[in-house]
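Fold description:
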Amino acid sequence: MADKGKHGFVRSVRRFFWLPRDMPRRPAAAGPLVRALLFGLAMGAVFAVFTPDDDVVTPSLMTVIVWVAMLDDVIKGVRHRWPAFLTSWAVCWSLARLLSAKMPGLGDSHWDEFAAFAPATAVSVAVFVEITRLPQNRRL
C-alpha cells in the first residue's frame, strides 16, 4: 500500500463500496456458500453439544461463518452485492426471531437456538444467491 501514494487507502475503500463501471459483475457461486453453510451447521452443532448454556459461544455463530463467505463474494463484486447481502442478513435475523418466538417448546438451550438459526441461515444463503442471479440493469 505504500506504493499507491497518499490516496491509495481512499481508493481501496471506495472500491469496496463502489465498483468501477467496466468491472464485470457475475452472480454468486452457490457451491462455496453451500460449503460454508455446511461447515457453519457443523460448527453450530459442535457449539450446541460442547458449550454450557450460560457460555457466550452459541450456535448462532454459525451465521457469522456464512456471512463472512457472503462478504467475500461482496468484495469480489458479484451482481447486486449490497442489496443481496443486506436482504439476506435481514431475512436471517427476522426468520430466526420468528422461529424462536413461534415454535412451541423452544427454550433457552443451545439446541433450541440451533433449531432456530439453522433454517434461517440456509434461507439467507438461498436469498443471497438468488438476488445475485437477478438480471443487471443495462443503464448502469
